Amino acid sequence: VTIIADKPSLEWMEFESHRFPVISNGVSPVFAYFAKAVATMWTTTPFIEKHPKLKDRYYLVQNYEVDFYKPDVALRIKANQTYNLGREIKYLTISKWCQDWLKNEYDKESEYAPNGIDIRRFTPVDRDYTGKIRILIEGDCAVEYKRVDESFSITNKLDKNKFEICYLSYQGQPKSWYRIDEFYHRVPHDKVGEGYGEADILLKSSKLESFSYPPLEMMATGGIVIVALNGGNAEYIRDKYNALTYNHDINEAIEKINILIEDENLRTTLINGGLETAKKRNWENIESDILKLYGVV
Predict the structure, then answer these.
(1) Residues 95-99, mean pLDDT to the nearest whole number
(2) Alpha-carbon distance 257 to 249, whole Å?
(3) Cβ atoms 124, 222 nearer than 8 A
(4) What is the mean pLDDT of residues 46-73?
(5) How many helices (H) and strands (E) does the chain have?
(6) Residue 158 and residue 132: Cα distance in Å, rounded?
(7) Is 58 in contact with 111 (CB distance < 8 Å)?
(8) Interatomic CA distance for residues 185 and 172, integer angstroms
């Protein structure tokens, strides 16, 4: 495996006792032959289009990346063009939502395999909802479609004596008006599960996601999720079975939080449904589907 990246910060990537070389795209010349090459964002598609020594070429579409940019930004047009590349490039996706718009908007067929989770990293934790409730908000507040501001507009209205608010962000720094009791910044991936396990509720307000991991990760720890539906979570979120959903209405979200605190039976249902959902998404259960995408089984 070789990683070809834009402006990488390291020359070798280590993951689960494996080391992969990292090449700077456009800086280091690449002459090697690759049996399979996978573009993972629209900016990486020129390599799989132009590199002459590739046997199989894939484009893993993980989001509608056109919407990463405002209408007056030229990059929006360039991202849009990558959804109609030549026939020799095979389109793959990890989201039913992406598969649908690729077909309906671009008449582009794609192969699908569900995204998964390593449940070994997320230990179920029993919560006690009789004391102060800890609500976790996750996401980069500098990215508009993450709607982190919306989440804090909800939690800022909650009783300080009844709720503690935690914020988990890898990139963004909290804004001055956020009411936060604890801030988790740049937490290593193998430690993220501990952060989820220390919270009772995950509040997630994103409007656009490719595949939304945080709700699934929270479920795997036995926590409860209150979430706004989007394309990236709709295929596994089931209202009142493994989560409570709201429609970007602040008062509705506050009402759902209060109902959750008062209704023990509902909490039990959501916790059990969430744990079952996470187990079904364990990598071991879907590994063969993923390998089939790349023709290796």
Answers:
(1) 92
(2) 13
(3) yes
(4) 94
(5) 9, 13
(6) 12
(7) no
(8) 8
173 DSSP 8-state letter = P
Alpha-carbon gap, residue 229 to 237, rounded angstroms: 8
Amino acid at 193: G
Q: How far is CA 185 from the centre of its chain?
A: 17
pLDDT at 271 over 90: yes
Other C-beta atoms closer than 10 Å to the C-beta of 124 total 16
Strands (E) in 111-261, as ranges, are 111-112, 133-138, 163-169, 182-185, 201-204, 224-228, 244-246
User: Given this model, what pLDDT does residue 15 score?
Assistant: 86
Dihedral (Cα; 123, 129, 131, 136), 10-degree rounding: 60
At residue 210 the predicted structure's pLDDT band, cuts being 50, 70 and 90, is confident
User: Which is higher by pLDDT, 153 or 86?
Assistant: 153
Report the C-alpha gap between 132 and 56 in whole angstroms: 54
Mean pLDDT of 201-205: 98
